[in-house]
UniProtKB/TrEMBL annotation:
Domain Peptidoglycan beta-N-acetylmuramidase NamZ C-terminal, chain residue ranges per copy: 238-397
InterPro entries: NamZ, NamZ_C, NamZ_N
Organism classification: Bacteria, Deltaproteobacteria, Bradymonadales, Lujinxingiaceae, Lujinxingia
Any one Gene Ontology molecular-function term assigned to this protein's record: peptidoglycan beta-N-acetylmuramidase activity
Annotated ranges, domain Peptidoglycan beta-N-acetylmuramidase NamZ N-terminal: 31-233
A Pfam cross-reference name: NamZ_N
Protein name: DUF1343 domain-containing protein
Amino acid sequence: MTHGTPIVQTGLQRLLTEPERLQALQGQRLGLLVNPTSVTNELEHAIEALRGAGLNIVRLFGPEHGVRADAQDMEVVEETVDPISGLPCVSLYGHTFESLKPRPEHLAGLDRVICDIQDIGARYYTYVYTIGLMMQACGEAGIPVTVLDRPNPINGMDIEGNIVLEGYNSFVGMQPIATRHAMTCGELAHYFNRFTDWQCQLDVVELQGWKRTMWFDDTGLPWVMPSPNMPTLETATLYPGQCLIEGTNLSEARGTTRPFELVGAPYVDAPALKAYLESLELEGVAFRLAAFRPMFQKHAGQTCRGLQLHITDRNRLRSLTLSYAILTGIIAQGSRDFGWREQAYEFVQDRLAIDLLLGDPAQRRALEDGADPRALAEANRVARADFEARRTECLLYHD
């Protein structure tokens, strides 16, 4: 992180420092959809910062992991009062799929809802859908929504993957957007408002100084873990591909200090996997034989054999191609211990988790059949052409 004044001003920072924006919100009863990433440049949380600026925050809304992000992935959050501010709190990640969207009583008495959450840039990351469902609920209730924009941490240029097909929508892919979408939260809000039924009276407080080529560490902004298993920018860089490991019985290294950067299982032939991946000559990544023992979740307490993925050139790395290759390499080993995750995943029980993550079962079948992972990734260009055309219409930042 650079020292001094950040190059980029977030939507929150602009709201706090531009008097006319604050003045327009004075006297309104405000709801606030936030998590730990909702901070100023000085790391003050938006709750305290906005209240300190004289705004009347009357209710908090928490996405997956909660307002303070103390819950693990897919763990039910049952907050009713924020322990720090004392404000009433509505969890938007409960026991059922219906809990993901605010109910009319949750919005009662509010004049506006402000959303401020850092996204990761991959379609599986659920926060953008929480914003979208909030937009839909507020639209139905006649309540305006303000989205305070934040950077896409893995740049706003590089697009990877396909789109989710009808019938494979879930909370890891609720709208037909690319796996790595190269959009900010504010741009996605415009996309939802324009091309989906998540429509409302929308205001986006745009970033200042952000360029699409920037990675998060180019912005000068402080990195705050967006969720418990997203500790670093390196994790986020690998995540668009490595989240696919969640759809298998391989460990994506939750329960270690390097989630998504390590991958393995007790049954993996790590040297053979390394040799296969190196034969593909994938750009931007190097592989190290590794053993790790997760403290919780898959293979907890067992020694997993596998690899650590070392990023050597993030601009050349294509994380989805890499993870396709990891899966084809492990499937080719023929271990009867390998399998796709069959338990319920993000409230869905009648589809394989990998099909929800990939958004298209044909992709899974191609991996099972040993397709060249580079060709599979290249074929996705056609599948996402419509998305790319729509995306272009919603971009707010043009270098």
